[in-house]
Amino acid sequence: MRPRLADRLLGAGTAAAAAAAAAIVLLIAAFVLGESLPALREIGAARFFTDGGWHPTADGFNLAPMLLASLAVAVGATLLAAPVALLVALFCAACAPEWIANVVRRVVELLASIPSVVVGFFGLVALVPLIARLRPPGASLLAGVLVLALMILPTIALLAEASLRAVPRAQWVAAAALGIGRCGALRRVVIPGARRGLLGAIFLGLARALGETMAVLMVCGNDVRWPTDLFGPVRPLTANIALEMAYALGRHRSALFVSGLLLMAAVTVLVAASHARAAEPSRA
Amino acid sequence: MATPKGSGSDCAGRLKVLADPTRLAAVEMLMAGPRRVAELHAALDVDQSLLSHHLAVLREHGLVEAERAGKGVLYRLAAAVRLPPQAAAIDLGCCRLSFAAPPARAPVAARPRRARPRGRGAAGLLALAAGLLPVPGCGGEAAARTRLSVTGSSTVAPLVAEIARRFEALHPEARIDVQTGGSGRGIADVRSGVADLGMVSRALRPDESELAACTIAWDGIALIVHATNPVAEPTRAQVAAVYRGEARDWSRLGAPAGPITVVSKAEGRSTLELFLDHFGLAAGAIRADIVIGDNAQGIKIVAGNPRAIGYVSIGAAAVEIAHGAPIRMLPFDGVDPSLAAVRDATFPIRRPLVLVSRGAPEGVARSFVAFAASEAADDLIEAQSFAPPDRRAPATR
Amino acid sequence: MHEPPAIRLERERGRAGERALAAATGSAAALVLVLFALIVAGLVQRGGGRLGWSYLVDAPQDAGRAGGIGPILLSTLLLVGIAIAAAGPVALASALFLDGAERSAPRAVKLVRASLDVLASVPSIVFGLFGNALLCRALGLGFSLLSGGLTLACMALPFMARAADEGLRAVAREPRLAAAALALSRTTTMRHVLLPAAAPALVAGVALGIGRALAETAALVFTSGYVDRAPTSLLDSGRALSVHVYDLAMNVAGGDASACGAALLLLGFVLVLQAGARALTRRAFAAAGAAP
Fold first, then answer.
1. Interface touch A137/B183, C-beta < 8 Å
2. Is B309 helix (H, G, I), strand (E, B) or coil?
3. CA–CA separation, A71 and A69 (whole Å)
4. Are residues A11 and A59 in the same domain?
5. Is position A190 within any domain?
């Protein structure tokens, strides 16, 4: 009798926790939707893509360039950060002696805790002037990509390493028995086993990049224009919200929430796509 | 049930709230039964809006409740506080405040219950957290504190926080919480009663005139360029042309050729509006390369780009120049930017830093506003790189 | 023993490939170390002079440009504590649900995973506004450590849950089958088989959560607030270290040096917190993994 009760409690408890976790995002979505409704009603959804530009005090509400800027910066950062992060994860999980791996892991953990404002600060005082010397104005899409890559690299690396280390020992042992070295075992044996986790890590890095506010605000230039020029300024949606929220009233404020809604919608589409494509893994 | 404010409606806090003749009289009237606002207004000799303010405070501290009744609002003592009419007293939880006979003894504050640390090891952490949890019952140890809530402009916040620190040192019973959120938030919070005072980094607009405002400092705005940029004072028209995107090269302003990197502030900022005003520009006409949110961001960008131009707070620029930042400020209308010039208004591009309240402030709020506007705060104002008000002239509202 | 040429070639190619991989991963790790060193050097150069014991315990003066960060450290510790204490169990329990319901409720599992992924991408400022509306206003907590900590918990949750999820999913089939063959209840299986096996991933999850909580700025400005006094209760407003760094770097003129000093201290703080969290987590799961 007792084990079954404990099991039922466990089942109920975990289900409740999972439901709560899922509910949070629904609550946030409802909140953002609620705050966006006035603008959606008054301005109409289409104008957020067709208006002449973003001039909220002068009745211009085109969000499209900013949405594209968000995507460009985030995707660029992920493309840059993911390979490096994966290599670092491999290094710590397999290709290094224990003590070196520990040191590197600590450094990655520290990097993960650096406030976005500090990364943005160095982007502002060191990176932007450097780029400006190449091509003004310096605060640009490129600066945003580089700074964001640095921010999400630790996240991807830590998650990826967790996935790699979670691969059962049996597989490592089998690889050793076949005479394949620990580092070489990765390609054939371990990475395929951890592939789903690695993809998940990259995806979460992308998601984090889309949501990052402070660092991009400081280095992207924040002029609203289409992200066609790598060295030109862009304004990601998150920077827009941060810049204008404190001073926006009424319709303007509601329009800013529409941009938040847009971002969440874009991510939901990305998530749905990635989940649909991922094949169901078989247990090792 | 009214939401308790801040750290809980402790007994001493409630007594402090009641320590006002109007509020005490209102509570005494309500002891006999519910009353409409109009009745209270007629019986008590105070302004209608002031009465509403008092009632709101009483409501927030859980002493009275309000409900809509027909055309007006009906007030009654909160259920938790109410006692049978013959008691002629109200129940504050730890003590009773009696209006009937001269008090035989003063209300007694009970000692607070404190969570006893139990267990060992990591449970000690739990005890620490438990000790920090809000404790029910009356606080006897902490002196009765008056809590003041100030929200608004993040430009003004560091200054007000420093003034508050000094004020708290002089008045140990006061506790002033400063939060940021923007000038608009400050005004909204004061209007809705969430905050006692608001911090606003601009002059009030006509539709905000119902708020009481007190200028505690001044801030000026100057154009900045890189220290190596030899450009002389540009004319108003030249600056307007640069910011409209019509003049794109420094040679147009008589400086060595090179593309101009235009730095401007985000829409809605009072700095931007001031700038637009003085240079005759419309918000939609600006073509900027970089849009910033904070002064420091602008300064760092101009310091890192020899061909950039921007506009920031004079005080902030002065401090950074003193710290060695490679920028310089440009004169305007022949006047060199400086805090002294801002103070006596010879430098025209300036804005007031203002504390606002709904109606005239009272009690601690009034003392605090007076303190902030007085000479006692001047050194703090200068330390935060603003200009104190010119005390030779009559106080500006 | 005589090796056939084919196997020898494969082995050599394998070794070359292994060397290349080792070189690549080594370079990546070196890059990370260099970047980190550059940042730390930059911080030390600008703000190193401010550090000292009094800096750790004194209250801020002059808008943070003088004095110390004692009260702010306390607020930060409480914020992170609340965040991890709230998010950790929920993350673990969610991951356990995902692990257990993989077959019985696949749609629910997909929905929960997708929700967590979307949650990870919500802009931090939206979290701040949401936290402000829900916790500070609707629930009446006001600007407080509790509001800030719970908001941080929401932000850290998806990362911690993902780490736990990966750790549990990777637990091999054999131990599970063995547990089933022994007719162990799900609870026992969890305590003695799943969790110990997933322990490293769980530790990584906690590290990730702490990192996320400490690095966050925008959300805290709207929830735990700006007050730099030492908090006397969890309902008091308190300034997080990241908010302090932001204020000094961006809002207070001449605050760069102090911002960098505070940032350096933050890193030291992280080291201590991570070490402590690691020790606690390992001990908890090692104890769980002891023989039943």
1. no
2. strand
3. 5
4. no
5. yes
* Pair A34, A89 in one domain: no
Neighbouring chains to B with at least 3 Cβ pairs closer than 8 Å: A, C
Which of B210, B209, B207, B200 lies closest to B180 in space, CA to CA? B200
Name the burial class of residue B67, with classes exposed (0-12), middle (13-18) and buried (19+) by CB atoms within 10 angstroms of its CB.
Answer: exposed
Which of B331, B300, C11 shows the shortest CA–CA distance to A125? Answer: B300
Q: Measured between beta carbons, which residues in chain B are less than 8 angstroms from residue A124? A: 297, 300-301, 304
Which pLDDT does position A82 carry in this prediction?
94
Least-confidence region, from B63-72, C64-73, C197-206 = B63-72
Evaluate whether C179 touches C289 at the Cβ level (below 8 Å): no
User: Sorting pLDDT into bands at 50, 70 and 90, what band is A58?
Assistant: confident
- The one-letter code for the residue type at B303 is A
**Residue B95, SS3?**
coil
For residue C46 the two structure tokens come to 């600008």
CATH of the domain at A222: 1.10.3720.10
ipTM of this model? Answer: 0.84
Based on the domain organization, do A9 and A94 belong to the same domain? no
Domain count within chain A: 2
Asked, for residue A193, whether it belongs to a domain, the answer is: yes
Residues of chain C in contact with residue B5, where contact means CB-CB under 8 angstroms, are 142
- On the CB side of A132, CA atoms within 13 Å amount to 29
**Which residues does chain A have within 8 Å of residue C241's beta carbon, measured at their own beta carbons?**
115
C-alpha B247/C-alpha B238 separation (Å) is: 8
Residues C164/C167/C168/C173 CA torsion (nearest 10 deg) = 180
Q: Terminus-to-terminus CA distance in chain A, angstroms?
A: 33
Nearest to C226 among B5, B159, B178 (CB): B178
SS3 content of chain B, % helix, strand, coil (to 5): 35, 20, 40
Same domain, A72 and A118: yes
Regarding whether A212 and A73 lie in a shared domain, the answer is yes
Residue A284 lies in a domain: no
Instruction: Using the structure block, give the residue that is written with the tokens 């969430």.
Output: B194
Tell me, yes or no, whether A151 and A270 share the same domain.
yes
pTM over cut 0.90: no
Beta-carbon count within 10 A of B259 CB? 13
For tokens 């700025």, the residue is C217
The first and second tokens of residue B120, run together, are 């060992």
Q: Which of C70, C271, B245, B20 is nearest to A112 (CA)?
A: C271
What is the C-alpha separation between C188 and C201, in angstroms, rounded? Answer: 20
Structural domain of A225: 48-279
Q: What is the mean pLDDT of residues B264-293?
A: 86
Q: Using a CB-CB distance cutoff of 8 angstroms, which residues of chain B are in contact with residue A249?
A: 184
Kind of pairing between the strands at B211-226 and B327-329: antiparallel
Q: Cα–Cα distances in Å, from B80 out to A278, B43, B60, B86?
A: 59, 25, 14, 17
Burial class (CB in 10 A: 0-12, 13-18, 19+), B322: exposed
Instruction: State chain C's maximal CA–CA distance in angstroms.
Output: 79
Q: What is the tally of helices (H) and strands (E) in chain A?
A: 13, 2
Do residues A146 and A207 share a domain?
yes
pLDDT tens sequence across C117-160: 889 878 888 898 899 889 988 888 889 999 999 999 999 999 89
| Both structure tokens of C154 | 């929401």
CA distance B79 to C263: 50
Give me the residues paired with residue B75 across strands: B35, B66
Same domain, A104 and A169: yes
Q: What is the DSSP letter of B332?
A: B
| Residue A166, in any domain of the structure | yes
Helix, strand and coil in chain A, % to nearest 5:
80, 0, 20
C-alpha torsion angle, residues C85, C87, C91, C93 (rounded to 10): 50
Chain B contacts in chain A segment 220-249 (CB below 8 A)? 221-223, 233, 235, 242-249
Q: What are phi and psi of B346, to 5 degrees?
A: -70, -30
